[in-house]
């Protein structure tokens, strides 16, 4: 197995372990983060209903304008976190369960989480 494929398999295993513990309910939906090499995506999910309640990414038109062409760094992740928190508050969501999807909690994932907390989400 090549190194890149092995890395994805290990992250997927970690994500499965996290998902055993973190579950999205209507009272406390799950904030799930996914990062690729160039972009970061975040969505708030109610797992019981199977619905995405709010989402944001570096591909959103509203986020793209403030990024200045750079979408794969911590500043872009912070902008996505702030945008997601604003959209969640508009729908009345203040508490979420954070799902880092097997990624380490540092760098872009941490920047997104800190920006969401600063905008008023609690987790």
Summary of the model, kept short:
The protein is α+β, with helices and mostly antiparallel strands and 123 residues long.
Describe this protein's structure.
By secondary structure, the protein is an alpha+beta fold. The chain has a single domain, classed as Nucleotidyltransferase, domain 5 (2-Layer Sandwich). 44% of the residues lie in helices and 19% in strands. The protein is built from 4 helices and 4 strands, in the order H-E-E-E-H-H-E-H. The chain has a 4-stranded mixed beta sheet. The longest helix is centred in the first third of the chain and has 19 residues.
Helical residue percent? 40-55%
Mean pLDDT: 93
Secondary-structure element series: HEEEHHEH
Structural class per helix/strand content? alpha+beta
Number of helices: 4
Strand content: 15-25%
The backbone outline, from C-alpha atoms, is globular
The CATH class is Alpha Beta
For this structure, the CATH topology is Nucleotidyltransferase, domain 5
Output the strand order for the largest sheet. Answer: 3-2-1-4
CATH architecture: 2-Layer Sandwich
Overall strand count: 4
Alpha carbon gyration radius: 14 Å
Number of domains: 1
Distance between the termini: 37 Å
Set down the secondary structure blueprint.
Elements: H1 3-21, E1 30-35, E2 40-46, E3 51-57, H2 61-67, H3 74-90, E4 97-99, H4 108-118
Parallel strand pairs: 1-4
Antiparallel strand pairs: 1-2, 2-3
